Each structure stands twice: as C-alpha cells, then as structure tokens.
Amino acid sequence: MARENLEDAAATLREAADAASDDETRERLENQADQFANLAEADRGPDHGKLARHEHILSDISDEEGGEVADLVDDALESVRAFRETVEGV
C-alpha cells in the first residue's frame, strides 16, 4: 500500500510536467517522476534523507511555478509525505 504513494507521486508529477510552461521545469518534473517510479519498484524503499531531498526539490519547484503546476506538485508532495510516515527511523 505505501509504495502506491510513490507511484501516485510519480503519476502526479508527470501531469505537472505536462502542464509546465518551460522546458527546464518540465525536465525537472519528469526527472523527479522517474525517480519516484523507480523507488516504487525498488527492492528497498528510500530512507528519510532521500525523501527529504526530494521534498526540498519539489517545494522549490512549487514555489517557483504557481498555478496548476504548483497544485499538482503539492499533491505529489502529499503522497510523498504519506509514504514517509510509513518509513521507520527518525
């Protein structure tokens, strides 16, 4: 179930990439989507540090973009945070 949160984040970030108005943002979002898709399928899930780095990148993108892209990135962040609640440690 928890891995579904990472899959949801990847799918939402792909939507955000499609809605992005510039190539740099589109590429950053596609990169993040690919990474979350890979994490969802990995044998071992990401740790808190890796997830925090992704959250930071996504927060920066959301702050820079605004509008529909920011809303979609914020939705993806919610999925990441939901997954992070299932990770042991810190």
From TrEMBL:
Domain of life assignment: Archaea
InterPro entries noted in UniProt: DUF7553
Region span, Disordered: 1-49
Full protein name: Uncharacterized protein
UniProt source species: Haloterrigena turkmenica (strain ATCC 51198 / DSM 5511 / JCM 9101 / NCIMB 13204 / VKM B-1734 / 4k)
